[in-house]
Design a protein that fits this description.
Length: about 150
């Protein structure tokens, strides 16, 4: 099965591909983290079984469970054929690399980790960068050479 070509820039004028992208990113973020929290429920049950089987050793996974689930979720969805998480698909956005190559699992994972680092340091101020950069790119987008664009 051949994967579809990913265009590095919008299929139409620049301003249309990036219009209102910050508000769409915020709503996609909220949807994605709701999905991650829901995915943590079956993951917690699996960890409970692992904990019983390993005589308690598996219970050490609970402190990092959210990070594992979120890393797998974003790594698999952003590196998938649509290059977008479920929240991004609901908001009609996708992530592309500026060089036109597909986003791989490691790039998606590094994007997530940088987002967490910058968000923990700058909290909501992370969105201010998007107001002053071209295409509404945030700090972690600038570092990784990615951009989030509209698909509609």
């Amino acid at each position: 099965m051949a994967l579809p070509e990913v265009q590095p820039y919008g299929p139409r004028d620049e301003w249309q591909a990036y219009s209102g992208i910050l508000s769409r990113r915020v709503l996609a973020f909220l949807l994605d983290y709701l999905i991650v929290l829901l995915l943590c429920i079956p993951a917690a049950v699996i960890v409970a079984f692992i904990g019983v089987v390993t005589l308690g050793l598996g219970f050490l996974l609970y402190p990092v469970l959210f990070f594992l689930v979120a890393g797998l979720y974003f790594g698999m969805t952003l590196s998938g054929p649509s290059q977008a998480s479920l929240g991004m698909r609901a908001m009609n956005t996708r992530m592309v690399r500026l060089d036109g190559r597909r986003i791989d699992f490691l790039t998606a994972l590094v994007h997530l980790v940088l987002f967490w680092i910058f968000n923990s340091v700058l909290t909501p101020l992370i969105l201010l960068a998007g107001l002053f950069t071209e295409r509404g790119r945030l700090l972690h987008d600038l570092l990784l050479g990615t951009v989030v664009m509209r698909t509609d």
